[in-house]
Amino acid sequence: MKVLHIIATPRREKSNTLQVSQAFLNSLSALRHDVEVEVVDLYDFDLPALAGDNIEAKYTLMVGQPIDKNHEDSWRQIETLIRHFLSADAYVISAPMWNFGIPYALKYYIDCIVQPGYVFGFNEVGMPVPMVLGKKMVCVTARGGDYSPSSPMHAYDFHEPYLRSIFGFIGITDLQFISLQPTDISSLREAAFASAMGQARSLASSADWSPSSVPVPAG
Ligand SMILES: Cc1cc2nc3c(=O)[nH]c(=O)nc-3n(C[C@H](O)[C@H](O)[C@H](O)COP(=O)(O)O)c2cc1C
After folding, report:
1. How do residues 198-207 score in pLDDT, each as one tens digit?
2. 154 within 8 A of 148, measured Cβ to Cβ
3. Predicted TM-score (pTM) above 0.70
4. Which of 58, 123, 194, 207 lies at a C-alpha separation of 20 to 30 Å from 74?
5. CATH number for position 123
6. Beta strands 136-142 and 36-41: pairing type?
7. Domain range for 55
């Protein structure tokens, strides 16, 4: 099982999020010997430009036309990135909350890979149809404050709902969250870590992540 670990925090060894995602991945690797983790550190990773040729190509594809010959070379970079994303059986996204949403580097990655004809299509009445089927995802999110449903800050959470929406849109609906919060309220930090670490370990050992529950997509 190939797991793509997409890192959207630049804090490396100081990262709150990465401590929890690492606990999940370590537990998973200890329980399953077929796990191969590939890391994509979005702060040390070249993404193709979306302006210029690639935006022209995208708008051509949106109306169901073949892309212009002059845009093909540039578009190949987008195709390579999408192929790389689709090569995984499962994903771990490590994403702190930044200004109520996801960090810009993850948004840029999403803007590159979410392309018509590759990860979603359109049906005969023009409604979008997901194309990324049979994959699993865990989103490990860290927030400085508390955005849980009982918190007055809950309405400001554009982080988890966005991740659910965009990955659900392309077909990844087997999506689980481990939320580490609040990390930046010192009196509550330790309990937040204990709870998130516990969730990470129990998710890794759950039936959801047992070998039989991760179908290997055809092709
Ligand atoms: C640019 C930036 C914006 C942030 N915005 C929020 C925010 O809107 N709400 C919040 O609760 N915490 C916010 N934080 C705090 C982080 O979410 C929190 O410290 C988190 O634990 C960081 O995870 P990391 O160590 O993995 O990067 C922000 C931090 C940064 C650097």
Report:
1. 999 999 999 8
2. yes
3. yes
4. 123
5. 3.40.50.360
6. unpaired
7. 2-213
Q: Which atom, in ligand 1's list, is nearest to the CA of 103? A: 1
> Is 123 inside any structural domain?
yes
Ligand 1 pocket mutation, candidates 98, 160, 186, criterion most atoms within 8 A of CB: 98
In a domain, 163, yes or no: yes
CA angle 58, 64, 68 (to 5 degrees): 55
- Helices 72-86 and 53-62: angle between axes, nearest 10 degrees: 70
Q: Residue 40: inside a domain, yes or no?
A: yes
- Quote the Cα angle for 193-198-201, to 5°: 125
| Position 219 in a domain | no
DSSP category for residue 83: H
Kindly give the parts of the chain with pLDDT less than 50. 219
The string of pLDDT tens digits covering residues 23-43 is 999 999 999 999 999 999 999
Length of the chain: 219
The single-letter code of the amino acid at 195 is S
Total domain count, the chain? 1
Residue 172 near ligand 1, beta carbon < 6 Å: no
